[in-house]
Amino acid sequence: MTPIVTRREFVRGASLAFLGAAVRFPQEAGVAPKASRVVLVRREDALDALSQVNEEVIQGMLDEAVMRLLDQPTPAKAFSLLVRPGETVGIKTNVWSYLPTPPEVERSLKRRLVEAGVKEEDIGLDDHTVRTNPLFQKATSLMNVRPLRTHYLAGVSGCLKNYIMFAESQPALHPDSCADLGSLFFLPQVKDKTRLNVLCALTPQYYGRGPHHFNRRYVWAYKGLIVGQDPVAVDAVGLQLIMAKRRQELGPGQEVPPVPKHIQVADRKYGLGVSDLGRIELIKLGWAEEPLI
Amino acid sequence: MTDLAALLPKSIQGWEAVQKDAVYDRQTLYDYLDGGAEVYLAFDFKNVFVRKYSGPGQNEIALDIYDMGSAADAFGVFSCDRQDEEAGVGQESEYGPGLLRFWQGPYFVSITVAGDEKEAEKAVLALGRAAVPCLGSPGAKPGLLQSLPQAGLRPNRTCYFHGVINLNNRFFLASENILNLGRETNCVLAEYGPGEAEPVRLLLVQYPGEAQARAGLESFMKSYLPEGRETGAAQTENKKWTAARARKNYVSFVFDEPSREQAEELLSAVQFPKGERP
After folding, report:
1. Which of its termini does chain B have fewer beta carbons within 10 Å around, N or C?
2. Does residue A117 surpass a pLDDT of 80?
C-alpha cells in the first residue's frame, strides 16, 4: 500500500504531491534516482480552426522533439539511436473512439522508423490486440503513442496506462486507482523494449462526464506533443498540464483528477522512471501561448 | 428488465437505429465502458441497454439505459456528475451540448452524441422524452437527503453515492479509502454557500452499524485531521475549518468552513432519521 496523500497536501502548497515534488515517499531499495528529459513541443499551426491535424507540421514537431531529446542534429540520426535496421517495431497506439491517437502522428512516427532502416512490413500498429498480434509478439522495440486525457480511476490516461492492453486481465489493474500500471512495463512482451513515448497533447481532455467520460466541451487545442524515453516522466508532465487546466477551468477544488497515484507508484515502487518534477528536465519548444506548465 | 428493445423507438426525427441492441451486465460492463465501469459498479448496477442511432453525416447518438437496481441509486449516479441546466426530461435531467442525462424510477439514462452536437440536439431531447414512458413510475430519492440542513444549500449540487471512487471524482479527499466507504455505506455530499466562491462541503455517511461509524471517524481523524482528535475540529492549511462528528451509525464531516462556529453549527443542523440530532 502506498502512503496516504490527502487533500491537505495540496492545500499546503504541495499541489505537486502526486508528482513527488513536495511529498517524498520512501524509496524502495535498489531504486536509484536519475534525471529524465522530457520535451514539450507546440506549434500553433498543428491544428486548424476545425481541429484538423496538419501532418506536415506534426512531422516537424516530432522531429524537433526527438532531435532535442537525444541531442542529435537530424531526425535520421536521432531515430537511428532508437531503432536499428532489421528490427521489428510495434507502435502501441490508442483507438478510443472519442479521442484516438491522430493517424498523422502514427504516420509521422512510422515514416521515421522506415527511414531508420526498419522495413515497413516489420512495423505494426495496434491497440486492443497487441497481446495476440504476431508482430507485437516478436517485436524487438516498442513505440508508445497516445492522447492525454483524464480517467475516472487513474486520474490521467497517459503512456503508462496505454500499455494496459498488454495485460492478461485489464480489470485486474483497476484496483487502488490503477496504482500498479507501472508493472505492465515488466511483462515479458514489453520489458526493456520501449524506445519512445509520445503523449499527444494536441487536444487534451481535462475533465470527463457521462458514462463514456467524454464531451468535446472538455478538450482544448493545446497543440503540443510531450515526448520522452521515460514514460513516468512523460506522464508526470502530462498530469501537471491536466492539473493546471483543471485549476484554470474548474477551480482549485477540482484541480486533482482522481486519483493519479500510479505515476508515483511507477517511480517509487517499480523504479520505472522519474515522477519528481524536480528531477525532470523539461525542455519546451515552439509556440508559447498559454503554456500552463 | 422491462422489454426496452420493443418499447423504445427505432427511429426519431430522421435518426435510425443501427447495429444490434446490446445489453451489458456487471460482468461485461468493462467491455462497454472504457475506464468508467467502476463508477457504476460502485452502485447497485444491474445492466445497461444500449441502442445506437445514425443520423445526418457521420453523426451517431448512443442511448444508454442503466438499470441501477433502485431509484435511490439511479438518482445517485445522476447526481454525481451533474453540471448542466435542467432539460425537463424524466424525474430530473440536465442537457449540455452532446450529453443528455436523466433518471426515472430505477433507471439512469445517458444520451451522448459522437459528431456534431448541434445537429443532434433536437433528436437527443426527443429521444429522451420518448424513452421516459418506457421506464415506468417515478421513484423516491434517498432518504438520507432529508438530513441535510436547507439553509445555504446550493441547488443541484448534492450527490449521493456509496463508494470512495464517487467521492474522489467529486471531491478528492485522499489517495486511500480513509473513510472505509463501500457498497454498504450511504453517502451524501452537499455544497453550501453563496456565489462563485469555493463552497463549504458537508459529507454525511451512513455506516451499517455504530462500530463501523466509529472506525470510519477514527480512521479519518488519524489520516486527515490528527490535530482535531480531541475536539473534532481543526483549522487546516487554507485557514478554514474541518470538523467531524459521529452519532450512532452516522458520521458527518464539514470541509472548508471559514469559521469554526459555523462548522459546528452546520454539523448540529444535520437532521438524522427519527428527529435525532447529533
Report:
1. N
2. yes
